[in-house]
Design goal:
This protein is an alpha/beta fold. It contains 10 helices and 15 strands. Strand 3 and strand 4 form a beta hairpin. Bound molecules: arginine. The site of arginine (ARG) has 13 residues, from loops.
């Protein structure tokens, strides 16, 4: 029951039923690019691994999750070795800018603001923000109810941006989404604004207790793999990603983590 309900909610959260055609954009066979060689044999990829089911540390400490599987598959397809590096979420874009990592996969939303400083691959999944409150809270049903309330968010996220726009809200920032959710479970804040699939997963898995998601999704967001501006690896990653869509690997990975067929994705986020 819990599991079925959670799969249902997660699908909702991932926007099952989007209307833009997916396979159609994979289209023509990509041509091998002439010069402008990319990363070489190793791609250093940053992630903030406390964001299940996208990235998390499994019991043995190794990285696991949808993003991790997808990035490994992209590496295998492109013939490059993926070396993951765990970083704080708000350190990822600075690391890309400094060139200390080659790419980042971290449930990162493609935003206009981020596009000023980094490039993104084409969207690889659709998500959106949701409000979480205590299970017994019947007064909070929408964004408007959060005016003047105490809200916890993960630092540097779109959830933090959204919370900052709420009049009179008192915002506490945390290094990870699970810490923000724990603060709510402990009763120290009134709500959390975070990516819906992650909050729903935390509730469904029992990692966090006594919380619920209320209202509609606040936003529709697409995650992309972030790269330094002008990186030749944008093309390398997009080409490999298109191949994974065509050959069914993307569907396989999606089904493994979300239990359903992937919805259609647009070719670009805006
Ligand atoms: N999608 C949100 C954003 O891009 C949150 C991402 C947080 N990711 C993570 N691995 N902690 O701002």
């Amino acid at each position: 029951m819990t599991i079925r309900r959670s799969a249902f909610l997660r699908n909702l959260a991932l926007g099952l039923g989007a209307s833009v055609l997916f396979a159609a954009c994979g289209g023509g066979a990509p041509t091998a690019d002439g010069g402008g060689e990319a990363a070489g044999d190793i791609l250093k990829v940053a992630t903030e691994p406390a964001f299940p089911p996208f990235e998390f540390q499994a019991d043995g400490g190794e990285l696991d999750g949808f993003d991790i599987d997808l990035m490994k598959a992209i590496g295998a397809e492109a013939g490059v070795e993926i070396q993951f590096e765990s970083l704080p979420f708000d350190g990822i874009i600075p690391a890309l800018q400094a060139g200390t990592v080659d790419a980042a996969i971290s449930g990162m939303t493609i935003t206009q603001e981020r596009l000023n400083t980094v490039d993104f691959s084409r969207p690889y999944i659709k998500a959106g923000l949701a409000i979480a409150v205590k299970a017994e809270d019947t007064a909070t049903t929408s964004l408007a109810d959060l005016e003047g309330k105490r809200i916890a968010v993960q630092i540097g996220t779109t959830g933090a941006d959204q919370a900052a726009e709420i009049p009179g809200a008192v915002i506490s920032t945390f290094d990870s989404a699970p810490l923000a959710l724990q603060e709510l479970a402990n009763g120290n804040v009134d709500a959390v604004i975070n990516d819906a699939p992650v909050t729903l997963d935390a509730i469904a898995s029992g990692n966090i207790n006594g919380l619920k998601v209320v209202g509609e999704l606040l936003t529709e967001e697409f995650y992309g793999i972030a790269l330094p501006k002008g990186s030749p690896n944008v093309e390398v990653i997009n080409t490999a990603f298109a191949a994974l869509i065509e050959n069914g690997t993307y569907t396989e990975i999606y089904q493994k983590w979300f239990g359903t067929e992937p919805p259609e994705l647009p070719e670009s986020a805006f």
